[in-house]
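Table S4 entry, Core-binding (CB) domain-containing protein.
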Amino acid sequence: MRRWSGIVYRAFAEGLEDNPGPTSQQWLSVAEANKAAQRGEYSLGARLGIFKDEDERRHADLENRFGAIVDATLTRQSVFTTDDSRWQITEAVTRDLTEGVKKLARNADGDFTPDTYVKRLPLPTALHLSVLTGESLAALADAWHTASLARGTRKRTAKRWKPIVLRFKDWLGHDNLGRIAPADVQRWGDERSAGGSAPKTINDTNFAALQAVFGWGVKSGWLPINPAENARVEGRGKKRTREPWFLESESAAMPLSLTSHSEFKAPSERTPKPPPPSEVPWLRAYSAARVVEMI
């Protein structure tokens, strides 16, 4: 959670450091307003509204003051959260941003003492490395499955794709996210293709599942890249058993086979019935006759 609040902190504390804008007292007023929101005493709605308890009042006040900032940050970072995790981020932003405006108040007074508070907030790259060394593919599959159901993905899709990721894990022989490379994903698909799986199944089901799960992992901070993004198996095409045209011997045999039917016998021997519908196209092709002339 400190990663996301750290992004907000740096945007204010470092982005406005050289030009704080408001005076020191004005920045301190902002800090006091933030503290009032933490107590549920900032907005008019929080002070006069009817709430179940003080926690609900405080929640409404923090949402009113910081909700838009949190949503904008998460949207920019392409992060999906649950209600509980979003609330934890909101509280972290409230706490860290208050310290950030205090720093800007000092900057407005000409005090540019090195910022020590920012050291508590991990850089995004550092967080990625720590996540990669501690998380597993199975844990990512579980997290994706839970998040997918929470955001309304069909249960059938979520239930179908999670086992595919676990089968890929079994094929890898390890469960370390940090060791998965694009070549691993492609090699898995190639082996399935060599084993007889259809390219459409591999691309539209196996690779699609990995792309969805890894893509969500990138947006949620589990992975720096999507190793399945460009994976694809080319189609083998239909197996040809013969040439698409008729052989000369076949072409010569066609008229002879037609003359063996009663329709080509002498009129006295001919059965008074039209040729079978299946033979009409052949007769037209060889005689250039119209359909009405064939019946």
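Residues 126-134 have pLDDT under 50 and may be disordered.
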